[in-house]
Known about the structure:
Elements: H1 12-22, H2 41-47, H3 49-53, H4 60-63, H5 71-83, E1 87-91, H6 94-106, E2 112-116, H7 121-130, E3 133-137, E4 141-142, E5 147-148, H8 153-162, E6 168-172, E7 179-180, H9 183-192, E8 196-200, E9 224-227, H10 229-232, E10 240-244, H11 252-261, H12 269-305, E11 311-313, E12 325-326, E13 330-334, H13 342-353, E14 359-360, E15 364-368, H14 375-392, H15 406-409, H16 416-421, E16 424-428, E17 441-444, E18 448-451, H17 459-470, E19 474-476, E20 485-489
Parallel strand pairs: 2-3, 2-6, 6-8, 8-9
Antiparallel strand pairs: 1-10, 4-5, 7-12, 9-10, 11-13, 13-15, 14-15, 16-20, 17-18, 17-19
Helix pairs in contact: 1-5, 1-12, 5-12, 6-7, 6-11, 8-9, 12-14, 13-14
This protein binds pyridoxal-5'-phosphate (PLP).
Pyridoxal-5'-phosphate is lined by residues 94-96, 120, 122, 172, 200, 202, 228, 240.
Amino acid sequence: xxxxxxxxxxxxxxxxxxxxxxxxxxxxxxxxxxxxxxxxxxxxxxxxxxxxxxxxxxxxxxxxxxxxxxxxxxxxxxxxxxxxxxxxxxxxxxxxxxxxxxxxxxxxxxxxxxxxxxxxxxxxxxxxxxxxxxxxxxxxxxxxxxxxxxxxxxxxxxxxxxxxxxxxxxxxxxxxxxxxxxxxxxxxxxxxxxxxxxxxxxxxxxxxxxxxxxxxxxxxxxxxxxxxxxxxxxxxxxxxxxxxxxxxxxxxxxxxxxxxxxxxxxxxxxxxxxxxxxxxxxxxxxxxxxxxxxxxxxxxxxxxxxxxxxxxxxxxxxxxxxxxxxxxxxxxxxxxxxxxxxxxxxxxxxxxxxxxxxxxxxxxxxxxxxxxxxxxxxxxxxxxxxxxxxxxxxxxxxxxxxxxxxxxxxxxxxxxxxxxxxxxxxxxxxxxxxxxxxxxxxxxxxxxxxxxxxxxxxxxxxxxxxxxxxxxxxxxxxxxxxxxxxxxxxxxxxx
Length: 495
Ligand SMILES: Cc1ncc(COP(=O)(O)O)c(C=O)c1O
């Protein structure tokens, strides 16, 4: 990706923190562990003294005499240049913070926005904070594999025409499975309707840094893009970035204000420095590291494909509805022909072979490959999958339960904010039919919320939740994990 402007081989924030730690100054400021002396000895042993020496609560800008622009500002500017953004913000509460901020900035009280129904929970949480109203758009589905895919641009055209009041559309690309939507066309149709396109590219911090990966959403015309940099971009857990495109459709000041009120006044220097360093690595060595990994993956896929009972979800899916690209840094197995579900296959890999995939669903198991994967790790993965398939195969093909479709949900009848913050009562689940849910409940996997705050509870939704739980999925977000009761909005009772 182009890095015009500043020298991408610099990491100003990391350098500033490292210089402070290296000169061993006398510290009479927080954090009170004072570089490790005040911390539990076993913790220092586990993390290493360096982690404590580099942990400075005020951030280095506040401690050292910072030049202008400060190391923090310069590091964000370098990130914007590396990602081809007009402006980038570092986030220390994950991409979730970015979704919350975008909702505050773009979906304030009473404003309608289009949002992919199976968006990450942080979108609806963001709407709870902001008071905006979602108009849901359904992604495409692969019903055989029980997989949600990307949004088809034609559906976006229709919904934008039906809802001229919606000036922003939130979509997700790529998916958990590495399948990218036709973002270029979605941006084109959104812009033609006078709307901004926000792409949750949490699973694609690495996109744009190698020509064989799908292009980044910013390069395809998106107006705002989230990258959960800790997922595949090489930074530490909980660190992420929010980028603004150059179309001028989104008010930079409004987003900046929202990002600021959602962050701690003591942002972790470790997380920020890790973002600065991850950006440097992607910009200066990303293409070379990715090239080596992609070459190894060609062989790995051939070996996996040769295993009885294992099919791969890969590049060959591109061109189906909702799929315009595939990120090869995901190994996605269809294990139905082994006779066990993805969830059972994952459990076997974990318990028998100590191999830990990212996630599994009824038909699939997903492995995340890093920028620079080692042969040793990849070989262990192939051997464990081969051994598991042989140990588990029983000649039966597993059938997948249907994925819940948009008709099941019915949309929000009051805003998520009203439902979440309104006066609630807890009722037995069967008595909740017709009432308005105060909860967000998703079966995980596949992680598609069956109920959101503000949606009416129907008998079909209750059946779907029960089936999901019976199939072995966890019910994420339910206040009563046994699903005996649920919180619904208190009804107005006649005086
Ligand atoms: C599509 C999507 N967006 C946002 C997030 C939240 O990311 P983070 O964990 O960085 O807050 C996730 C997390 O899995 C996700 O899958």
